[in-house]
Amino acid sequence: MKLPSVRLYNTFTRRKEELRPLQPGVVRIYSCGPTVYRYAHVGNLRTFMLPDLLRRSLDYLGYRTEQVMNITDVGHLTDDTFDRGEDKMLVAARLEKKSPEEIAAAYTAAFLDDVRLLNIRPADHYPRATAYIAEMIALVGRLLEMGHAYVVGGNVYYDITSFPAYGRLSRNTVEKLVAGYRGEPDPRKRHPGDFTLWKAAGEHRTQVWDSPWGPGFPGWHIECSAMSMSILGDRFDIHTGGADNVFPHHEAEIAQSEAIAGHRVVSLWMHGGLLMLSGTRMAKSAGNFFRVTELEEQGFDPLAFRYLALQAKYRSPLNFSTEGLAGADRAVRQLRERVAAWSGGDGSVDAAFDERFRAALADDLDLPAAMAMVAELARSDLAPGVKAATLQAWDTVLGLDLKRGAMERDLPPGAADLITQREKARAAKDFATADALRERLKKMGVRVADAPLKD
Question: Comparing 180 with 402, which gets the higher pLDDT?
Answer without folding.
Answer: 402
